[in-house]
Specification:
The complex is a heterodimer. Chain A is α+β, with helices and mostly antiparallel strands. Chain A is built from 18 helices and 29 strands. The chains are: A alpha+beta, B alpha+beta.
Amino acid sequence: MATPTVSILEGNTFIVSDLAGNINATPIDPVGLFAWDTRFLSKWILTVNGTVPNVLSTDDLQYYLAQFFLVPGTGTIYVDSDISIIRRRAAGAGFQEEIVIRNEKPEATDLQVRLEAGADFADLFEVKDQLKKKGELYQRVRDSSLVLGYSRDTYVRETRITSSVPAEMDPRGLSYAVHLGPHEEWHTTIDVRIPTAGQLLSGEENAKPEVGVPPDGAARRAKDLRSWMITAPKVGSSWAPMERIYERSLVDLAALRFFPGVVPGGSLPAAGLPWFMSIFGRDSILTSFQALPFVPEMAATTLRALAAWQGTKEDPFRDEEPGKILHELRYGEMTAFTERPHSPYYGAADVTPLFIILLDELERWTGDRGLVEELEMEAKAALLWIDDYGDRNGDGYVDYQRHLDTGLENQCWKDSWNSILFSDGSNSKLPRAPAEIQGYVYDAKLRGARMARLFWNDPALADRLEREAAELKGRFNRDYWIDERGHFALAIDGDGRKVDSLTSNIGHLLWSGIVEQERAASCLDSLLSDRLYSGWGIRTMAEGDGAYNPIGYHIGTVWPHDNSIIALGLARYGYREEAARVAMGILEAATYFHERLPEAFAGFRRDMTRFPVQYPTACSPQAWATGTPLLLLRVLLGLEPIGDHLIVDPHLPEQIGWLQILDIPGRWGRTDAFARVREG
Amino acid sequence: MVSARACWDLRHSTARTADGSLIGMNTTVTTKPTIIHRFFDELALRGSEPLLHNVTGTIEWNIKDVGRWWVRMNHGAVHVSQSPQNADCVASCDAVTFAGIITGKENLMAAALRGAVPSSGNVALGLSFQRLLR
């Protein structure tokens, strides 16, 4: 079992430490101070008189703020201590840490207080893949600062540490000789500063922090979080956990806000902590989609940032093509030296149609036609990509195949190498055309047609897109259907074979609307069969298929976001009761994870385990898991914008007597939605 | 149906010189300063770049031992000058790096992260320069 850790984060920075607030990273642990996919601090250990204090308690008060209460270690069984230590740490442009030491006894005392500091400047990819550094590490004491640095050719990264109380600094840390009279208190504030985005790209030295100025960051962030929470709609329910789940989602969404720089002042959801604190096309789009009824402004930033990075040329290393929307953008050393293709990397076949879907959905909710007009060229380029580059073998379906081994083998949401498997467990051939992507394409064409007609004054394009969508739907329902198994294939592979495992992907088809009405009931039956439905949620792969593994990343676990999309799909086809059942299973699962849904949990049957079993290395918080309760609330209340109105057409599960959302923002201004279970 | 590739090229018809060529890719026969001068000359001829329709501002390129250029972008219009003007973003690099960037051997974002293109001011504007490259 992993050692318990405390994580705080802010913007593009996060800090993971142990319960005493210390960081002592081995090359492979994701602990330390991270920003820009780089570990700016890998050692940060407080000692008093040469020993590491013991932990009394730890509070992560807010996502950006943690407090550690300690007493000096005695090395023996616990005895009353007459010294107490408080560390208060706030994240932001690195972190600021206040250390308070109190002498509780009536006599004076002298203490040697030391902070061991070190930085390995590991790229997150190196932490994940256990790789060695190629440049030089250095440490310097300069202008009352301890500078920890790393250089490789022109690449320089520095962490600058200063103290409000003068410290004795050496290359390995800071020391204080502290004299405390009876009942006296001593404190210092240490500023650990890392470069801002501008400094990172400017090659300038880190801004020198103002010594002695208490970090006002925490107060500013507290105000920002209050205003975020106050602006968001209010949720109330007879089912007690609902409000807590909703608040957890909102706070985590605030924590995951990432400021992409290309959209001044705007924030979008980063994909997840600790591995994915960056722009991810798929994750940022789907999370923005889930959050539309609650915090619609994230979607606009997501779309603008992704548009600014839209592919313009063919670049095999980055799987870039004109019109394609990025998969992920990274800032670390391996990306800088093109040892990884993430500057940005474009290996995703589903993100480009999803971009169009989000743009249209944003307008439906907010009435922001300005954005649809502003991004007309990008949306049309995305539509062109779908028909040309998207379909590399010319069979009429969007598929993928990486150009180089540094790219991703699977470029759909199930992006592990072993996700697109036949029912006998064998792997399929590239290029692969997953079913759900064809659904997204269908939806993107219809939505593109709506935007072309209403906002781009392009009825010819609208007509053509509608024709193509109708033709695709007919063809898809023939080509992907597996008669003998009674469900849609997971994909069509490079040999033209139907990949026949039964998977959650068919639920996404319902969301897109590509499923012909007469096939919808069989999709419903498959999704809620014992093979796919665990009792908590719909598994990524059905029990009984060759590769099924209840703790396999994409081959048996339950993904909350996957279920939220499927629930919306079930509702779209009128299966409201089943949609509510799926929603409720996931919401009940959340109560076992302190209201914070993980990225994925195990696919074990509910009646076997009685509680949902966490997937070992899941990210948490993870953006689209965080967005899941928001989309499920939309499903339960049947919220749908029609014209300038919000339609409320609820269908609640039996556990929820009543449910309301107040102040839902949108083109109608603000409005409320309320639902009560009918008696009898 | 018109393919994406064809459509994309149509947008850049103004980018092409009379002989239809874009930037010289063969650095062994053409010196780097020449490539760089030709690049800015062709950019000046191009006059517009639809991919920059959302971008406004001026980038100053300071290329060591080669020269300085100011590229003004205004909702898709592109104006190139060698006489000093106010810049929103000032970017510097050596001739090898810049030649790599404009010939597609080097990625601007990666080079910037590496510290090979120190820049100040509106760095996001500087990155949008990548959209002028093929």
